């Protein structure tokens, strides 16, 4: 039994490139079928052209870099990637470069936006702190966060390899370097700053993802070849109101 | 090829074969350039680490899409934000087109973004990733018949949207 026109249109609309013999036979059997198919093909060509978004420059290089950088790692991934082996996590002395607010860098420079703040702040000492990652021991992470009436989960605390107070658009905050399998990732906690949750920013070859928190916000900052969105949930769940403040 | 070099060659082939299409697919489902790039990075990072699990190279495309969709879901397991920069990104490449073509593409792209996810995703799996209805059904975990219905409706909505908007957009003879 031959295919009726409505069934032909249904299949045509679902798959204009349909190569099913029954479909092709029906197409050739009647001028009306053939015209409908030709119209659908013309639309499909336009649809394909519209869907064909330009790929960003350097995309392939960034992907290939993954295997080059990580050639020695062959273990399967399980959940979010952290280096739980770091022994230093709860080490003694708090070596926080707090010279604190002290640092010669001005505390409240009046940034117009979080974007501008992150770009300037990262330019100021982001790379230097990354370089320091793993070199020095850190101490009581919770004590630092307690100042802002928040606490961090042990999972986050144990992968912090550098931590210091830093200026933020709305007062003091915390600048950290996290030790992940993808390499060091910067995390900035801004206790009094509201951000557009999930927003992505790019500056100076880096990218950042903003995270809205129970109190304040955070920015995850990584290189172009690092995946930072995968840290979103982890960070979101790891900086929470301190129990006696919740 | 079980050597490290062979492993790397397999990975490179996956990157060259599917990297660009995966980015396009990611861009269409999330609507944000930086996030799309990040999702692709994460997808390939996980693929690299689990590469030995990929036994059949013919399954590579579906495998990568599965990883990417999972990453996207994981990133936004609480809520999916509405990005507003899609249009800026998706029309940025049109400088060499004729004005009418540009308008037509713009309308189509806007219409694709207006589609409900349940229509948009199978359509993009088919148009961007070249999946068959059967592959889409396996990827999305729904019947082939449901896939065909969604694809049909997706195209019908696209045509209706573009025709409607095309009146003010001065697009003639689009369909």
Keywords:
heterodimer; A: alpha+beta; six-stranded antiparallel beta sheet; 8 helices; B: 175 residues; Rna Polymerase Sigma Factor, Chain: A; Arc Repressor Mutant, subunit A; 2 domains; 72% helix; disordered C terminus
Describe this structure in words.
The complex is a heterodimer of chains A (246) and B (175). Chain A has 8 helices and 8 strands. Chain A has 246 residues and is of the alpha+beta class. Chain A folds into 2 domains: 5-51, no CATH class; 59-71 and 78-245, no CATH class. In chain A, the strands form 2 sheets. Chain A has a 6-stranded antiparallel sheet with strand order 2-3-4-7-6-5. Chain A has a two-stranded antiparallel ribbon with strand order 1-8. Chain B is built from 8 helices and no strands. Chain B has helices spanning 4-30, 33-49, 60-75, 86-90, 99-114, 117-127, 133-140, 144-169. The radius of gyration of chain B is 18 Å and the shape is globular. Chain B starts with a helix and ends in a 6-residue tail after the last helix. The model of chain B is unreliable at 167-175 (pLDDT under 50). Chains A and B meet through α1, α3, α4, β5 and α8 of A and α1, α2, α3, α5 and α6 of B.
């Amino acid at each position: 039994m031959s295919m009726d026109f409505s069934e032909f249109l249904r299949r045509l609309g679902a798959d204009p490139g349909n190569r099913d013999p029954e479909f092709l036979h029906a197409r050739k059997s009647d001028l009306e079928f053939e015209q409908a198919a030709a119209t659908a093909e013309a639309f499909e060509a336009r649809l394909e052209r519209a869907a064909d978004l330009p790929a960003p420059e350097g995309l392939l290089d960034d992907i290939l870099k993954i295997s080059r950088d990580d050639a020695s790692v062959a273990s399967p991934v399980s959940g979010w990637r952290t280096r739980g082996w770091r022994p230093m996590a709860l080490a003694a002395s708090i070596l926080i470069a707090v010279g604190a607010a002290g640092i010669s860098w001005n505390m409240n420079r009046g940034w117009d936006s979080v974007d501008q703040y992150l770009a300037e702040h990262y330019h100021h000492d982001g790379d230097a702190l990354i370089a320091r990652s793993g070199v020095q021991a850190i101490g009581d992470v919770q004590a630092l966060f307690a100042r802002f009436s928040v606490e961090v989960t042990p999972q986050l605390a144990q992968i912090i390899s550098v931590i210091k107070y830093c200026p933020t658009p709305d007062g003091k905050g915390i600048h950290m370097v996290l030790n992940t399998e993808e390499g060091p990732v910067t995390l900035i906690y801004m206790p009094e700053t509201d951000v557009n949750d999930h927003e992505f920013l790019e500056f100076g070859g880096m990218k950042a993802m903003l995270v809205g928190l129970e109190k304040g916000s955070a920015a995850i900052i990584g290189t172009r070849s690092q995946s930072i969105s995968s840290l979103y949930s982890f960070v979101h769940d790891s900086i929470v109101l301190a129990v006696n403040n919740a | 090829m079980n050597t490290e070099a062979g492993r790397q060659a397999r990975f490179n082939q996956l990157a060259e074969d599917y990297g660009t299409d995966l980015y396009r697919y990611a861009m269409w489902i999330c609507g944000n350039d930086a996030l799309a790039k990040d999702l692709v990075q994460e997808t390939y990072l996980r693929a690299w680490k689990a590469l030995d699990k990929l036994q059949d190279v013919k399954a590579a495309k579906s495998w990568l899409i599965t990883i990417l969709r999972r990453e996207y879901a994981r990133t936004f397991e609480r809520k999916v934000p509405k990005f507003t920069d899609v249009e800026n990104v998706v029309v940025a490449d049109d400088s060499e087109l004729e004005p009418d073509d540009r308008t037509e593409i713009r309308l189509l792209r806007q219409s694709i973004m207006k589609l409900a996810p349940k229509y948009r995703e199978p359509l993009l799996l088919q148009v961007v990733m070249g999946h068959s209805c059967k592959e889409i059904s396996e990827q999305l975990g729904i019947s082939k018949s449901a896939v065909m219905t969604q694809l049909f409706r997706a195209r019908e909505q696209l045509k209706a949207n573009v025709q409607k908007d095309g009146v003010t957009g001065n697009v003639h003879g689009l369909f």
